[in-house]
Amino acid sequence: MTTVAMPVFSKQNETRSKGILLGVVGTDVPVKELLKTIPKYKLGIHGYAFAITNNGYILTHPELRPLYEEGKKRRKPNYSSVDLSEVEWEDRDDVLRNAMVNRKTGKFSMEVKKTVDKGKRVLVMTNDYYYTDIKGTPFSLGVALSRGHGKYFFRGNVTIEEGLHDLEHPDVSLADEWSYCNTDLHPEHRHLSQLEAIKLYLRGKEPLLQCDKELIQEVLFDAVVSAPIEAYWTSLALNKSENSDKGVEVAFLGTRTGLSRINLFVGAEQLTNQDFLKAGDKENIFNADHFPLWYRRAAEQIPGSFVYSIPFSTGTVNKSNVVTASTSIQLLDERKSPVVAAVGIQMKLEFFQRKFWTASRQCASLDGKCSISCDDETVNCYLIDNNGFILVSEDYTQTGDFFGEVEGAVMNKLLTMGSFKRITLYDYQAMCRANKESSDGAHGLLDPYNAFLSAVKWIMTELVLFLVEFNLCSWWHSDMTAKAQKLKQTLEPCDTEYPAFVSERTIKETTGNIACEDCSK
After folding, report:
1. Domains assigned to the chain
2. pLDDT by residue (tens digit) across 168-185?
3. What range(s) does the Voltage-dependent calcium channel alpha-2/delta subunit conserved region domain occupy (predicted)?
């Protein structure tokens, strides 16, 4: 929520020159309503818009985290005064911040390290920033476009009849936080979902609906082009030999226009991860400020390759034991090569691991292909993802852990030989646990009285000390006057520095033996 206010002066002829202030008028505007005005589909997969005040404080930014969770969600102490330099921290010289605070118009570029998946993974890219001031306000607006995304667009044409036919499929959905149509202008439209509004608009049944014609045309094209995948998924579901043990549970597709297709290979009640792709699963659906996590990660991989992920520390806590795999779909135009969609599946972890062990045994049976067998009791085999987290291990409790915590010496060698790269990250919005001494509530109220009583007792003790035994002194200084103290853990704002790791894609060959010190089976 942000508040916009302005003074109201008298406009009567006889008082206009005196500047008589009549009052102040203002209104509260939810930030999410501001985000609806941003054409997310034009910004690309990683692109975003942001705004700051003339003091450099953030009005809206996808990396702003004003809340923290401690039992329930609470506002951070400094949630309304987070500086732009705290989220765009790679700009060490504050070039971007100073230009926007000074209300300039221009462009700025820098390499950025964007964290995803609760800060444990990192995407390294180059952003081009475009900024200007917003006339008549104390705000400046910025737009960040990632190189390779958001600059080139793919346009296609289909008829309204074709598009409407494919939009009717029950497995099709649209990003409800995107503004395909403005459903807030008229009360009779406010109950409509974006998909319902588009259908009414295209059929001409709601002439008062205001919609983004360009975006809707692209949605229709995506609906038609992606329709054949439904038939492919259906054929797989009918061919029981392809998925006899129901290891693959969900297939999904998302396009650059926020259109999604989802196919279940098992009943909804049989899904291992019941929350996946639901409205509450904010990381994995199209939002007002970001594309799904599986889409963003796939877009940064080599075309045609899959990216995998599982819940962190899967083997040690009670989490959904699933593997999510996704890959990007690009046009075969080497000059521009825009990512137009991403497709993926979610499968049971046990099914995925079984496939891996089967493949490793097949490799071992081929002469010269695999000199080491994972069935060897003296060997530990691991499958790790591109950020160094364990996907498969003979010890199930290690699944989802960082490989460096399990095999630190081996991870160090992988870093030394260039297979992985260490990246230092900073979080200037973190909340850290701190121990504080807290007094018992009742004793706190009586502190002045207890201090006075203790002083009187000390004087009386000194006066009669020659008449009594020393144990009387101990009676006067008994536990009755002690102040109860206990340690209490609280969350406080702090700055943190931590590492992340990413596989080095320029290293083509990572097969071989490493002479490793301090290694153990």
Report:
1. 1-27 (no CATH), 28-146 (3.30.450.20), 160-226 (no CATH), 228-406 (no CATH), 441-483 (no CATH)
2. 899 999 998 899 999 888
3. 179-520
